[in-house]
Amino acid sequence: MFDKKIGIETSSKITWCLGCFNFQILDGIKKALKSKDLNEFAIAAGIGCHAKIFDYLNINGINTLHGRVLPACLGMKIGNPNLNVLGFAGDGDAYAEGIEHLVHAARYNADIKYFVHNNQVFALTVGQPTPTTEQGFKDKTTPLGVKVPPLNPIKLMLAAGASFVARVFADSKQVEWIAKEALKHKGFAFVEILQPCLIFHADAGYKEKIYMLDEKHDKTSLNQAMKKAEEFDYNIAKKIPLGIFYQVERETFEEQLPQVAELKKQKKSWKDINR
Amino acid sequence: MRFNVLFGGKAGQGPNILTHILGKILIERGFYVFYSRDYESVIRGGHNFNVLTFSNEPVHSNDSNIDILVALDEETVEIHRKDTKKETILLSGKEENMYFAGKLFKVLGFEFALLEKELKEIKKRFEENIREAKRGYDEANQTFKMENIHSAECKEKRIFKNGSMGIADGAINSGMDIYYAYPMTPATPILWELAEKQIEKNFLVLELENEIAVANAGIGSAITGAKTMVGTSGGGFDLMTEALSLTGIAGVPLVFYLSQRPGPATGMATYTGQGDMNIARHAGHGEFTRIVLAPGDAKECEELTSQAFYFSQKYKIPSIILSDKHISESFYTLDGKPRLTGSKKWTNFGRYNSYEKNSQGSSTENPEIVKRNVDDRNKKRIFIEQESEIFERFKIFGKKDSENVIVSWGSPKGAIIDAIKYGEIDAKFVQILYIEPFPKEIWNELLGKNIILVENNSTSPLNDLLKEKIGFNAPPKSIILRYDGRPFIRNELEIEIKKRLRK
Asked: Does this model's pTM top 0.90?
């Protein structure tokens, strides 16, 4: 157990590039967790630039393997259903190496908040294309350019049955807002954070194209959400809608498991069960 | 005397229920019973058969010569005719399985009431089953002479279970909280066992999207302090190996159940083999400490599972229970209760890392810290080796001072013990239960002796293990290998062993 008095900070030196948008995400998450009892939280991160967030948040959990953030989160939630579980992943983790877990996490609807830092590039391995990189992108491994169209994760999540689907820009205020909204949601919350990479996938003018979904958008309408999701195909950006595309309430994975539901009711974890 | 009853038929005709009913009743009457299952990877049709061997003395294997052949279809008679003799009683014809149950009971001289009681317990199709069984019982006109064999009066009730039930009971009695799996033969029967008991015993069984999710969710739960186990066969274990490596660096107490079948790749789904000792020992990149335990029957499955939980919890390491299809699906008669090792929930939630970590659990590349972490991981091996000395890491059977020493591990145990006993072979048998940490003192048992190795694979990883650990190398002619997916048969193995004895 970490010492509560230490607070959310760790003594690790932050090694993101100067001005990296990951600073915005870290700041937003810290603000969203301000005044919370961190002992009630658990975090998991994958592998890549995003994953350094694990080192900078003094919260129990696991800095796990590439692509395996969601099973780690599920395991922690099942192990102790009283924990608020937050997962952090890159687009490589979420959409390439571990995409099968993403689809099933949406189905399961376990009470997990999942933040995908999507910089549309493998940054820590110095700049290869990921499943959300635009066509034509070139690097040393892909000199002929990316040929296949990118994946639209918002559409994928809507189709897979996620109960909370959102996208924000890597701006501290937006991240804080959406993290608070996600924490209020009961069930699997999919949050994509569009995050330019200053070195390998510079700002493609997203800041001028983003706009927030307003109150006219019906969050409970799958049709409307799909239409909004189609406005940006991760290839050519004209308009990029941000905000909560879709949010409905349905029974969580752990509520449907009587053994786990009972633990939650008694505010216990499996570790407290003496046999 | 040992008697063998073969039940054969197409998948779906129900030879299993027949076999099990007879086994249970024989045990209740004080006999020892062993039965194995041979089935193809088909849902309906094909040729499946079970061989049930019983005696008034302990039995752990089957013989190839059949005393009673129960054929639910014509093909069974054709295929198994070679294993019959003049006196073999053949029960065949176009009838359903319960008709044969009745007939068999009459042939064996059992009262019909015994069968009626069993059919009542099954409940399903009771009226129909009892009518068929009664007709079979009344129409039977042969009598099986069980010469010199009478059911021994047994004081305590003997238990009848397969290896999967042994693993499941071992896990439950070790206080397991969560079992994650993805279905794969022959690891699926334990999933059934556990799933059925989860509510009554208050633990959780979950099937996830694949073995990668299974192992990684297992890690997530284990670090919260839950006693957690995952289970699979070779192919699924391959998928889990990156997570296995993670348990090594992060110090996660996760128990892996690995039930072998023949490989490589899909190999043969429903047959047996021991080709995976090396993946159990070496899978996962990097250097880390693990234990690998190899039970040889259902009782050892239970005992070693409790030891796997003990070492995992105490030392925060992965434990691998290495079984196979023959143990997982064969039924053994247990004399006496297994001796289990208790373990507490010694794991606390904290900051775990797949990277090298500092005292706060954050990633580090500091050379001094990294070296210390590596040393800590390696020290576990030394501590475990020392502590494991108080456990029964190997067993000795047969003639203790014999010049001939048979060495094996896992499922061949049953056929070896029975071959020595019923073939009156002058040999000692050393069964290795701890593959890692290896009991180096078995060197004393082998020194200067005529060594015979027995394994259900084609390359003898056991010989490599002995070479690596104690510098021992068996010549090829001293190694008995079977690698057609079938288990060792007692009388066939007896001949092979006898060819290699030092006179």
From this structure: yes
